[in-house]
Design a protein that fits this description.
The chain is built from 26 helices and 21 strands. It is α+β, with helices and mostly antiparallel strands. Strands 15-19-18-17-16-20-21 form a seven-stranded mixed sheet, with helices on both faces. Strands 9-8-5-6-7-14 form a six-stranded antiparallel sheet. α25 links the parallel β18 and β19. α9 crosses α16 and α16 packs antiparallel against α21.
């Protein structure tokens, strides 16, 4: 049986007749209401006398058009007492008043459905691009029927590839949802559908609405074919990739966008090929592994940390966990530990951006014994545990002595700073070949003197954070006092804000002062690896329209341990076997690791920014604009130094740009999860709801302003809670605008923005995840309570 779509009321009436479980349908035209409302009221009361409550729903001609939708634009009134004639009449009048007086508009009356287990909306194609996934957005917490369509309450989102078999679902709820979808697709063949439903606690499905998705005209005509052709290759790749690897501990792996070097935060979940390949070259090919080996972690086989799945970057957590094993740990222990870490992450996906603190032991801290035994009871024998403990303790004591790895890393960074003064001007290169040669030198320096020492210093930042958390848990120092300590550390970003403030607060500041600022900080970009992201020195309005009242003046106060704190910390460190530092030396080390991480990043990104400028110039020399260069892979550019090109230079790279665009397009069509735990996750993709990392103990209520890499610096941010997707240092200019708080989609507890907010004592929720971030960033107003670890959207005050 095939049916035609009509108005909401007509469609539901037809589906009821076809045997679907649609709540009783009664509808009438607005012209009929104007003619004799009392007769219609009598009919409704008679028809629904057996029900306690009904719902008056809109069914406008304009609501469910094939080319445009006004869904949600008209009123629907829920929970009307059928015995209250006045309320019923008022509700109908209210619904009709919300129409635009189109001829043929109707009003739909149905009984109210209660005892709700879950309710929501299912799209049979992705709304934005038409890719072939069922998209289930549902609420299984509130018990309401309109929380999804009304945009309120908690929700979950599940993407299911259209070729996935119903028999492969474990969830009875999802099976019921998909049974409804399959049945509707039979009566409305080849029509992309938007379906509203509710599932009651007896697992009975109630159908509330079916209409055509009206964004079809915006879809790529071959999107279904593009995804369908590639998805089995993606599954095979994941399936093979997850197998046991030579020289790597762990029978299987998990892929995630936020563990370890979190690419989602740094380059985004769908980066352009150049950004992804630059990140690979500078960080995830070998830098991440070599830096840890220098610090005393295990020397591993040359596996890479990041892998691209359908063009999306993922961290291989098995490789990550292998790199956190101390050198010389017995293989039998290493195998048990890595496998247990993977298993814990599999069972606790909410820790995907906190693996260093909730999953893996990357350092020895005073809480190690109890944490490890609580998380992994019976995993190791007593003697194995003691060996693991001693190896980690030895590694920790080694690294806590600054002269061993921290200060040498600092020295490398200073060497890079000196070398940067000797680089030739990029525009001095006479052709693209010479320019490529200069870029290769910049990249080599960036790795040897930049990203490797930066990685070491950043790892010291994690050691610091682990020890501070332990000291809080052991009551050696309070969380409030640790916050005060962090606020006492001025980073290079804090210096930049102070410098910026001085320029903006001084009306007599001249162009020379601005030039001095840009000479020092002009290389920073909101997208550090993105050639299309403007650096500060290319932003002509950086100092424009900034009033003195917008400028934040941050005062750093000296921090001194109290005698009691010093005594407590010394006792905790000594009893745990940490002998290389006492309380005061540790705090000096901690300050140096926190500020050093920001400083090292600040220096190495100068090389990176020069490389991006050079690549843009390289594109100009061969006839490519920056948007086209962004679609190239770095090795394809650098290989021109190694082997001659078979065709014309432009023709060669034009073809590679075309392939890069297809790869980027494919990455956007695919729906993949934050975590891929098996090859089945290629087909069924839950959107994980993340637990934010809250910074400070403050509470703030303020309007929301969303800032992107293309936002102008003249935007009014003072007093607002700012939402940005990544925790990229290029966004540091927002701290010059007296903001009230910060929310990011990505970023961990030790990310750049977390450190900056801790430095300023600014309330923040870092790494909220996609669902919560979109909920907050689309709200007009929000309450951010870092003390209670809560962030909730609310109406504009």
């Amino acid at each position: 049986m095939h049916l035609n779509l009509g108005t909401k009321a007509e469609t539901l009436e037809a589906l009821l007749g076809a045997g679907f479980n649609v709540p009783k349908v009664f509808y009438f035209g607005t012209e009929d209401w104007q003619y004799d409302p009392d007769d219609i009221l009598n009919s409704i009361i008679s028809e629904f006398s057996e029900y306690e409550a009904i719902v008056v729903r809109s069914s406008s001609i304009a609501e469910d058009g094939h080319e445009a939708s006004a869904a949600g634009a008209f009123e629907s009134i829920l929970n009307i007492d059928i015995r209250d004639r006045t309320a019923l009449k008022d509700s109908i009048e209210k619904v009709i008043a919300s129409y635009d007086s189109s001829k043929g508009d109707q009003v739909l009356i149905q009984p109210m459905i209660s005892n709700i287990e879950a309710s929501g909306v299912i799209m049979t194609r992705c709304l934005e691009d038409g890719s072939p996934y069922y998209v289930i957005n549902y609420d299984d917490e509130s018990g309401k029927t309109d929380s999804i369509t009304g945009g309120s309450g908690a929700s979950k989102t599940l993407y299911i590839y259209k070729g996935f078999s119903l028999s492969d679902f474990n969830s009875n709820r999802v099976k019921k949802m998909m049974e409804l979808v399959y049945a509707l697709e039979k009566v409305f063949p080849n029509i992309p559908l938007d379906i509203e439903f509710a599932l009651d606690r007896n697992l009975e499905m109630h159908l509330f609405q079916v209409r055509k998705i009206c964004t079809v005209k915006n879809w790529h005509p071959n999107v279904e074919s593009i995804v369908s052709t590639k998805i089995s290759f993606v599954e095979n790749f994941v399936s093979n990739y997850f197998q046991k690897r030579f020289g790597v501990f762990g029978e299987r792996t998990i892929l995630g966008v936020m563990p370890d070097w979190n690419p989602a935060e740094i380059i985004g979940v769908t980066p352009k090929p150049l950004a992804a390949s630059l990140y690979r070259e500078l960080i995830t090919r070998s830098t991440w592994r070599k830096s840890r080996e220098i610090m005393g972690y295990r020397k591993n086989v040359p596996e890479e940390l990041m892998v691209l799945v359908a063009g999306r970057p993922y961290i291989d957590v098995r490789n990550s966990f292998n790199s956190f094993l101390p050198a010389d740990l017995e293989p039998e222990i290493a195998e048990k530990v890595v496998s247990a870490y993977i298993e814990r992450l599999d069972n606790n996906p909410q820790y995907h951006d906190k693996v260093e603190f909730e999953i893996a032991a990357t350092v020895y801290d005073p809480c190690f014994d109890e944490n490890f035994k609580n998380r992994y009871p019976g995993l190791l024998t007593e003697s194995e545990f003691n060996q693991y403990r001693e190896k980690l303790l030895e590694l920790t004591n080694f690294n806590l002595k600054p002269e061993n790895t921290l200060l040498p890393a600092y020295e490398k960074i200073e060497q890079l700073k000196s070398r940067q003064k000797t680089y030739p001007k990029l525009n001095s290169a006479i052709n693209f070949f010479e320019l490529t040669s200069i870029l290769r030198s910049l990249l080599n320096d960036c790795i040897e003197f930049g990203t490797i020492p930066f990685s070491i210093i950043a790892r010291h930042g994690f050691i610091t954070e682990s020890l501070l958390r332990s000291l809080i848990n052991k009551n050696g120092i309070s969380r409030k006092r640790v916050d005060e300590f962090k606020r006492s550390i001025e980073t290079v970003s804090g210096e930049m804000s102070r410098h910026f403030n001085e320029i903006c607060s001084n009306s007599a500041a001249d162009e020379a002062a601005q030039k001095d600022f840009l000479d020092r900080y002009g290389h920073l970009r909101p997208g550090t690896y993105d050639i299309l992201s403007l650096k500060y020195s290319d932003r002509h309005n950086l100092f424009s329209n900034v009033s003195r009242s917008q400028v934040t003046v941050q005062m750093h106060k000296d921090f001194v341990l109290s005698p009691t704190e010093r005594r407590n910390i010394n006792k905790i460190l000594s009893e745990s076997g940490i002998k290389s530092v006492d309380a005061d030396i540790f705090l000096n080390y901690a300050a140096k690791s926190i500020s050093g991480r920001e400083y090292a990043k600040f220096i190495f990104t100068k090389n990176l920014s020069l490389v991006l400028d050079g690549l843009a110039l390289w594109g100009e020399k061969i006839g490519l604009i920056k948007e086209e260069v962004a679609m190239l892979n770095l090795p394809d550019i650098m290989d021109s130094l190694y082997s001659h090109l078979d065709s014309s230079v432009y023709g060669h790279y034009e073809e590679l740009v075309r392939k890069g665009k297809k790869q980027y397009e494919l990455a956007n069509y695919f729906k993949l999860s934050y975590l891929i735990r098996s090859s089945a996750d290629v087909y069924v993709v839950p959107q994980h709801r993340c637990a934010p990392n809250f910074i400070s103990s403050k509470r703030v209520e303020a309007p929301i302003v969303k800032v992107s890499s293309t936002s102008t610096e003249s935007e009014e941010l003072a007093g607002a809670i700012v939402c940005i997707e990544s925790a990229d240092p290029g966004y540091d200019w927002i701290f010059t605008r007296k903001i009230a708080g910060l929310v990011t989609k990505y970023g961990g507890t030790n990310s750049h923005m977390a450190i900056r907010c801790a430095e300023y004592g600014l309330p923040a929720a870092i790494g909220c995840g996609q669902l919560l971030y979109e909920k907050i960033s689309s709200a007009g107003f929000c309450c951010l309570d870092a003390d209670l670890k809560k962030i909730t959207p609310c109406e504009m005050q």
